[in-house]
Amino acid sequence: MKHLEFKRKYADLLLSGKKRITIRNWTNLKAGDEVYVHCGGKIIGKAKISAVERKKISELTDEEARLDGFSSREDMLEELERIGYGDEVYVIRFDFEPIESVNPHNMYYGDADLVEVAEKSLKHLDLEERDRKVLEIFLMYGSIRKAARKLGGSRKRGEIRKILRKCYLMLKERSLI
User: Fold this and answer.
1) Rounded to an integer, what is the distance from CA 145 to the centroid of its chain?
2) pLDDT in tens, the chain (177 residues)
3) Where are the domains of the chain?
4) I want to staple 171 with a disulfide (CB 3.0 to 4.6 A). Which of 14, 17, 113, 177 is the partner?
5) Three-state DSSP class for 87?
6) Are 163 and 132 in contact (CB under 8 A)?
7) What is the CATH number of domain 2-102?
């Protein structure tokens, strides 16, 4: 399942149902997608994407600002400028359903240490060259975030996590972890 991540400061707005859209510079989401909603490092719910629309920032409305949790369109535009969004954005509408807070690490890797997963995978698994390279970079930098930057930017975090999850499952299947 895909993920939609928010800063911790948006948790109350999400949980109260006041935040029902998000504006992003980039997205791989489309209408009908179901996603886990992260906030402050925890999964706090699930959402179903009801619409994704590409718009010019100048076309954003007061209603969209309100649904995004801002008190005014001007406040929303200030925030978008502050974080460096370009002229066009994606307006993502979603229906949010809260769940009991879950640590994503435990959900995907149990109590496994990701460095151990990477080291054992490189030693014991027959990996594709790209997976091997990604794991080596992860070990070199010691964090998913730093490795993603080395691989080309924060969007690469998903690729790293996907490889680690796949390796974890293969190691677990072979009783190596």
Assistant:
1) 12
2) 888 999 899 999 999 999 999 999 999 999 999 999 998 878 999 999 999 999 999 999 999 999 999 999 999 999 999 999 989 999 999 999 999 877 777 778 888 999 999 999 999 999 999 999 999 999 999 999 899 999 998 888 889 989 999 999 999 999 998
3) 2-102, 106-173
4) 177
5) coil
6) no
7) 2.30.130.30
